[in-house]
Design goal:
Elements (H helix, E strand, L loop, with lengths): L4 E5 L4 H12 L3 E5 L8 H10 L4 E3 L6 H10 L4 E4 L6 H6 L1 H22 L3 E7 L22 H19 L4 E7 L1 E3 L18 H9 L6 E4 L11 E2 L1 E3 H16 L3 E7 L5 E2 H12 L5 E4 L14 H7 L7 H14 L7
Parallel strand pairs: 1-2, 1-4, 2-3, 4-5, 5-6, 6-11, 7-10, 8-13
Antiparallel strand pairs: 9-12
The chain binds nicotinamide-adenine-dinucleotide (NAD) and uridine-diphosphate-N-acetylglucosamine.
Length: 340
């Protein structure tokens, strides 16, 4: 599909920006639609510095159907990659209506435009969160799904909406990508994760400890049924994840119907293993204290990766050291994120 035009919703965000880089490098034209509610416009210029090309950028709220329609009306779009959405689990519990309204309306408006303008291919950012507390690991795509917070339900419901849309539109094809724990940054250090306020997720928190912005890491529980008692997750380098979207687009080229695929490495690391790997990558101790468990956390979560290999011909290539070293590089070069 290279040479074709891909509309990337949420393309200014963490995963979206890395995917724009891979798309441009692979020869796609990229139209990025983002209202910048959780990202910065400087990202577009950084993408150009990496690739020599800039995406066409529209600052649009996907919930504004008419504005989105104008973009579809103006360009011949071959496929959509849909990243845009709110993603903070805790916030979704506090503001469920905002999460359902934004995440579901964004998905529906995109599909309505796709239907109207005959765009048949969509790749959707889903999450391992749809598996809830898994009965067994590694988690296969046919495992039971159940969510424990509104954010998760928006992913579950968006998957259902997209799947139903594929049933109704015989030419449509969709790939629901269930990400495990994306971390790390582009090797240039020009783009990376730039969370607002105090980070909730492990790696951004460790980055800020390494930069001296936060005093120490709180390790949420060392009494899980895991080798060292701390939570085990499948961390995946964001550049590997971004590459997976190119493979998904290629797959959709000859496909019909709706498929779901895990994007993970298949390997689980504990919180303390991540702390050790990050310390080695940055050459500094990361101070931490063991505290109580975080509500809603599970012990162990990692992906079965066979389906990604078989269907998408994709597997993760970068290891935990690469993830930590690139995150540290981004942190050092951008101590205040995209704000200089
Ligand atoms: P992000 O917040 O960095 O990027 C999302 C982008 O969407 C932001 O730039 C934001 O401004 C934009 N956006 C949100 N609502 C919008 C709207 N109504 N109209 C236009 N733009 C809007 O998040 P990310 O980490 O890059 O995640 C991308 C996607 O992947 C999200 O759907 C997220 O739920 C999913 N996901 C992320 C993770 C993760 O750990 N980062 C894990 C699993 C799934
Ligand atoms: C979180 C989300 C999940 C989302 C995923 C994507 C929650 C409950 N779940 O998953 O829906 O798909 O991000 O990245 O928010 N930890 C600490 N100290 C910290 C932060 C985290 O010990 O300051 C531990 C956690 O207990 C967990 C591990 O680090 O064991 C990873 O946590 P995190 O990065 O927040 O990701 P998840 O909880 O897996």
């Amino acid at each position: 599909m290279s040479g074709k035009t891909v509309l990337v919703s949420g393309g200014a965000g963490y995963i979206g920006s890395h995917t724009c880089v891979e798309l441009l490098n692979a020869g796609y034209e990229v139209i990025c639609v983002d209202d910048l509610r959780n990202s910065k416009e400087q990202v577009m210029e950084r993408i150009e510095r990496i690739t020599g090309k800039q995406p066409i950028f529209f600052r649009i709220d996907l919930c504004n159907y008419d504005a989105l329609d104008r973009v579809f009306h103006s360009y011949k779009i071959d496929a959509v990659i849909h990243f845009a959405g709110l993603k903070a689990v805790g916030e979704s519990v506090e503001k469920p209506l905002e999460y359902y309204s934004n995440n579901l309306n964004a998905t529906i408006n995109l599909l309505r435009c796709m239907e109207l303008y005959g765009v048949n291919k969509i790749v959707f950012s889903s999450s391992a969160t749809v598996y809830g507390n898994p009965k067994t690991v590694p988690i296969t795509e046919d495992a039971d799904r159940w969510c424990t917070n509104p954010y998760g339900w928006t992913k579950y419901m968006s998957e259902q909406i997209i799947s139903d849309w594929c049933v109704a539109n015989k030419d449509a094809s969709a790939m629901l990508l269930r990400y495990f724990n994306p971390i790390g940054a582009h090797k240039s250090g020009l783009i990376g994760e730039d969370p607002n306020g105090i980070p909730n997720n492990l790696l951004p928190y460790i980055c800020q400890v390494s930069a001296g912005k936060l005093e120490y890491l709180r390790v949420y529980g060392d009494d899980y049924d895991t080798p060292d008692g701390t939570g085990v997750r499948d961390y995946i380098h964001v550049v590997d994840l971004a590459r997976g979207h190119i493979n998904a687009l290629k797959y959709l080229d000859g496909a019909s119907g709706c498929e779901c695929v895990n994007l993970g490495t298949g390997v689980g690391y504990s919180v303390l293993e991540v702390v050790k790997a990050y310390s080695e990558a940055c050459g500094k101790e990361i101070p931490y204290k063991i505290v109580g468990r975080r509500a809603g956390d599970i012990a162990t979560c990692y992906a079965a990766t066979d389906k990604a290999r078989e269907l998408l011909n994709w597997q993760a290539e970068l290891n935990l050291h690469d993830m930590c070293a690139s995150a540290y590089n981004w942190q050092c070069k951008n101590p205040n994120g995209y704000e200089q």
